[in-house]
Each structure stands twice: as structure tokens, then as C-alpha cells.
Amino acid sequence: QAQLVESGGGLVQPGGSLRLSCAASGFSFSTYIMNWYRQAPGKERELVASITSGGSTTNYVDSVKGRFTISRDNAKMTVYLQMNSLKPEDTAVYYCNARWSWYGHNRNYWGQGTQVTVSS
Length: 120
What we know:
The chain is mostly beta strands. 0% of the residues lie in helices and 55% in strands. It has no helices and 11 strands. The chain has strands spanning 3-7, 10-12, 18-25, 33-39, 46-51, 58-60, 68-73, 78-83, 92-102, 105-110, 114-118. Strands 2, 4, 5, 6, 9, 10 and 11 form a 7-stranded mixed β-sheet that branches. It is globular and about 45 Å long. It starts with a strand and ends with a strand.
């Protein structure tokens, strides 16, 4: 069974850094686009960052550009989100997501979510 297991969330002060990790198993990780989403209380789920299967292309929501970096290690079947210069508005539950599609077939897997709290 496909599984995404996250780690690295927690409490950090404004201006601090945190690195989230998402370990994948049970599917062909190297063929999937990987994404990080976040959802704050009362708000819609937001796509924060994405990375193509080979890691050659990344995309970010404007609010995190220059501060967050998504990366992946296909040998370790792990995707990362390095978060620097954190702000209180970054506080949310962060979700790891894997997407794959091929000629009408598609897969979409989600992690359990990990809480990131930015507060002094």
C-alpha cells in the first residue's frame, strides 16, 4: 500500500527555520510529481510547492518564494521542504502529496499532515 510519512514539523520562532521530510513507500516514487500543501484553520488548502519527478523543475506559491525550497532524493524515496525566515502566517498543517497520471490513469496519495507553528 502507498504510504507517505512526514516528519520535522513543530514549533519555531518567527525568522527561524524548519525542514520537513516525507518518506514514501509502496509506489513508484521516482515517477510521481511531489507536492507540499498547507491548510490553516478556517482557510482553504493551499499548494505551497511542487517538484517534478526528476527534480528538474520546481514551483512555489508567491508567498513563500525565496524562503522555501522543495527538493527530492529519489534514491531515498523522500521529498523535503526547507523553510527559512518563517512567519506567523506560515502556521498551518502541512501535507505531503504524490501525483501521477498516464493516459487517463491517475494516482493521488496524501500524507497524514504535520503541524507547523510559527510563534514567539
